[in-house]
Every structure is written in C-alpha cells, then in structure tokens.
Amino acid sequence: MAAPNPSRTTDWWRDAVIYQVYPRSFADGDGDGTGDLAGVRARLPHLAELGVDAVWFTPWYASPMVDGGYDVADYRAIDPAFGTLDEAEKLIAEAAALGLRVIVDIVPNHVSDRHAWFRAALAAGPGSPERARFHFRPGRGTDGELPPNDWPSQFSGNTWTRVPDGEWYLHLFTPEQPDLNWAHPDVRREHEDVLRFWFERGVAGVRIDSAALLAKDPGLRDFVEGVDPHPYIDQDEIHDVYRSWRAIADIYGGVFVGEVWLPDAERFARYLRPDELHTAFNFNFLACPWEPGRLRRTIDDTLAEHAPVHAPATWVLCNHDVTRTATRYGRADTAFDFATKRFGTPSDLELGTRRARAAALLTLALPGSVYLYQGEELGLPEADIPPDRVQDPMHFRSGGTDPGRDGCRVPLPWEAEAPAYGFGAGPGEPWLPQPADWARYAVDRQNADPDSMLTLYRTALALRRTVPGFGDGPLTWLPAADGVLAFTRTQGLTCVVNLTHTPAPLPPHTELLLTSGPLTPDGTLPPDTAAWLQAD
Ligand code: GLC
User: Fold this and answer.
1) Which of 63, 104, 172, 235 has the smallest count of CB within 10 Å of its CB?
2) Is 482 a catalytic residue?
C-alpha cells in the first residue's frame, strides 16, 4: 500500500475516499444468489487494492427486505441472508487490518413493521404507551375513514395506513416502514444505544438515512405548498438529536455522514455545524448535469456553503438510489431527478463512459471526501430489469411508471467466464438478473486492461494518496476557454476538464500525471476528457 501523504490532515474523513457496498449485490459467499458478508470478506482485497479509505455498508441488519434492508427489524442482528453478528465483527477487524474503516448505515426515521416495537404497538391498541413511539392517529371524516393529514410520500402513494382497530399510522415511505416518533424519549434513547452498540464494535462512522425527516410538526398539520416550514422536512427540532449523537460519536472518535437532500444551502449547512454531523452527501452535485457552467456553479456553491461551518464537502456521482453515472451522462438530459426517471430513456454509453471517466478525475481532485458506489469503479451502466423481476417498492408505488432503483443494484461481475460472472460460488441465480453483455465489465478482465475504468480508478486513487495537494484544502480556478474547467489545488496540482466539443490546450505544466483518455496527437485535451497536471 502507498505511504500516507504527509500533506493530508489527521481527520481522515475530511478527504477520504469511501466505497459504498450494497451487501445484497457485492459478492455471494454461500452461493444462494444473494450477496452476503462472507462474500464481502472474501473480496476485501479488491477494495484494498483499489485504494479506498473506508467502506460504507448499506443496512445489513435483520430485515424483511421490503425496501432493500431500509426496513430494519433489529439493529443489533445481521440479517440471516447476510450472515451473523460474529461475521460482521470479523469483517470489521479484517477490513481494519487492510487499512479500511467501516461505516454502517442507521435508519432512524422508521423501522420495519416487523420490529418488536411496532408489533407491540399494534397489539397494545389505541392510546397505549406502545403506540406513542410511532405516529398513530384517528382518521378524519365522519367515521375516521380519511387519513389524518395530506402529507405527500417520499415514494409516491399514501403516507398513512389504517389498522383494523380504526387508527392510522404514518409512514413516509412504504406501509412496511412505520415512522418513529422522535419526540418520544424511548426513541432517542434506543438510537443512542444502537450507535454505542456499533461504535463498540469498531465502526468508524455512521451514515444517517433520511437524516432531515425525523422530526415532525407536533400537530401533524397539513402540507401547504410553499408555506414554511415543511411539516416533516428539516424541522428545527432535529438538530437537538444530532447534537446528542455527536457527543456519543466524539467518545469513540466516530464520524457521521448525513443523507440530507435540501436545496437550501444555509439550511443544509446547519447539519454540519461543529457540534452536529461531520459531513453530508452532496446531492446537488450528484444531480447536476454534465455541463460546464452548472458544474462550476455547483462546485462553488458547495464550497461556499461548507466554509462557514468548516465542514469538508463530499463529492458523489451515484449511489444505490440513482441512475448509474455512465448511463446518465450518455443521455440527452444528463441531470438526475427522481421525478423524471422513466423507462426506455436512450443513452449513448460510449459518450457516457468517457464523461464518467472525466468525472472521476474531477471529483477526486476536488477539496473534500469522495463517495464511490460499488460498480462505479467498473464503469457499470444502469441495467434494464425485465418487468417481472423488478423488486423495488418505488416502482410499484409509482403505479409502474418509475423504473425503480434495481437497475443500479445488479450483482457485480467479478469473473468474465464464470457463471453469474463470479458473483456467487454456488448454483443460486442472482437475485436480480445480470445483463448478458457484462463479461466486459468483469473485474478480472479490467485488471488486465491498462485502459479500463478499474485501472483508471486504481491509478487515480494511488496518485491521490501520494501526490501532495489532493483532499482537503483550497481550490483556485484558472483562466480557461469557455466550457473548460481548470483549477489548481496546493503545490501546483492542477485539474482540467474539457466539456466543449473541440480539443482544448493544456495549461502550462511540468508533468502530466494522468488523463481520463488519450490526448490528441498534438497533445491537446479531447472533449469530455480530464487531466491531472503538475505545474510549478
Ligand atoms: C434512503 C435510502 C433509500 C431508502 C430510503 C428509505 O433514501 O437511501 O434506499 O429507500 O431512505 O429508508
């Protein structure tokens, strides 16, 4: 492994590269078609060789898997399909031995309807203390036949479900994900305990799911478009929760990354105040189209909104909820938006891949930390899932118009010639079908190819560790032609991205460190290509 770069800060999370593992689809150790911890443990060397600093696992807890594990039945148990707690502890230790920190995913907004608390609440009936941990209410209308309010769902569909005794309960996501009542002391105590449970097991950080949704308007008042504050997004009370979480994390040296989708920069930055979360995902960057003006503005806005709270920015191109980068960047509309996700959007994958390579060098050169979603290092495109194999509730709740998120959750290809591309060692068919032409994306094939996406990522990550100037620190834009983004970091490190349709000259430099694609014969930077340079 490369020697640590002395110019980097001791706060590892300020400039880390964090790899997201979706355990169901990473590697299948027992060969039943579903990924598991045994599979992850066997493939940890891939992550160490790739050169990432930490690994974030989407939920691996006991779950009926109605929403891919974001419906947690027991935070202190690993889902039997994935393995055991003992294996998770071994995994954390083995990762540490390879220099990889582990981040777990906590879902505080809701639990599974199979969680012991919700079972008890259903059994105990209206007015019981068990129901007070959730949002149970009588309905409106003459017989309580109408839901208690009009809140829109985070997935399409209703946010209230009626139980046989006539009460309704709130669920911002599916009915199998009842929302917890964060005004209840049990809810706070339990989550603080869950945090300690995982920090005690050596995890370095926690990703907080739906982090801005926990606190609800106390009267559960109706949602009125344009009237602030929103009754369940970004309520002020939420910050008190994160302050107490931070005090716990500080005892263990643990860090948080919040899933905070908020367009308002000032409201977003509140989550990153020094006594709250360390970092939050940069969804404005993820959603930004591949367009020079928009990208530059998003980068500037990101840095400006983080500066007052001294938090590092994060750079994210994709995750388990959104269209894969290579596919998105090959479309006519290269932005990401849940509202416009539709089946059958054409994509020029060659173009999208070229841009995804350039975007990799861009993000890795920006100040802050970077998230890499499994398969991004292989340049995987979004897969088409046959309608009868779709699993994601987002698809069903949209009435079938939204393709759902399965297309970015397909099991990884490891070996070009093996059954299921080496995803699993056994006869089990992968839980989601893998496209017939994925041999070319397999890890073993890319290992041997100097021009592959995997080689690009490995080389880039190795340089990012050893060359001074990457990670946390200032960024200065350089003068460049319209449509060319060029900036320096410290110590002469320079990044140039050509988003025009014609080749662009490189700025003066002493060394060409890396390019995302070949230069033209006369040494200029082709369209949709990025370069890292060393200047004086
Ligand atoms: C987050 C997760 C997503 C999940 C939702 C509900 O947005 O990333 O996958 O469906 O929360 O927990």
Assistant:
1) 235
2) no
User: What does the pLDDT read at residue 2?
Assistant: 42
Question: In a mutational test of the pocket of ligand 1, which residue from 112, 210, 233, 371 has the highest number of ligand atoms less than 8 Å from its CB?
Answer: 210
Catalytic, 209? Answer yes
Whether the predicted pLDDT of 4 surpasses 60: no
Q: Which of 103, 321, 397, 406 to mutate to test the pocket of ligand 1 (most atoms within 8 A of CB)?
A: 321
CB-neighbour burial class of residue 419 (10 A; exposed 0-12, middle 13-18, buried 19+): middle
The per-residue pLDDT of the chain, averaged, comes to: 96
Contact 27, 46 (CB under 8 A): no
Q: Of 2.30.110.10, 3.40.50.80, 2.60.40.1180, 1.20.1530.10, which CATH number belongs to 474-534?
A: 2.60.40.1180
User: How far is the centre of ligand 1, averaged over its atoms, from the C-alpha of 155 (Å)?
Assistant: 10
Q: Match domain 12-108+185-458 to its CATH number in 3.20.20.80, 2.130.10.10, 3.40.80.10, 3.40.50.200.
A: 3.20.20.80
* Cα of 68 from ligand 1 centre, angstroms: 9
Ligand 1, atom 7: nearest CA belongs to which residue?
Answer: 210
Would you list the domain boundaries of the chain?
A: 12-108+185-458, 116-170, 474-534
For residue 155, which atom of ligand 1 is closest to its CA? 10
| Residue 114, phi then psi, degrees to nearest 5 | -95, -5
Going from the Cα of 209 to the center of ligand 1, the distance in angstroms, rounded, reads: 6
pLDDT score of 155 = 86
Task: List pLDDT tens digits, range 437-473.
Answer: 999 999 999 999 999 999 999 999 999 999 999 999 9
- Under the banding of pLDDT at 50, 70 and 90, the label for residue 6 is very low
Ligand 1 binding pocket (C-beta < 6 A) is: 67, 70, 107, 173, 209-210, 259, 320-321
Statement: residue 158 has pLDDT above 90: yes
Work out which ligand 1 atom sits closest to the CA atom of 319: 8
Q: What is the DSSP letter of 525?
A: B
Q: Is the pTM of this model over 0.85?
A: yes
**Does 7 score more than 60 pLDDT?**
no
State which ligand 1 atom lies nearest to the alpha carbon of 109. 12
Q: How far is the CA of 293 from the centre of ligand 1 (A)?
A: 30
The residue whose CA is least distant from atom 9 of ligand 1 is 321
Measured in Å, residue 198 CA sits from the centre of ligand 1 at: 20
Helix (H) or strand (E) holding 285: helix 283-287
- Side chain identity, residue 499: L
Amino acid identity for residue 220 in this structure: L
Q: Which two tokens stand for residue 222?
A: 């109706």
The confidence score (pLDDT) of residue 8 equals 43
**SS3 of 390-408:** CCCHHHHHCCCCCCCCHHH
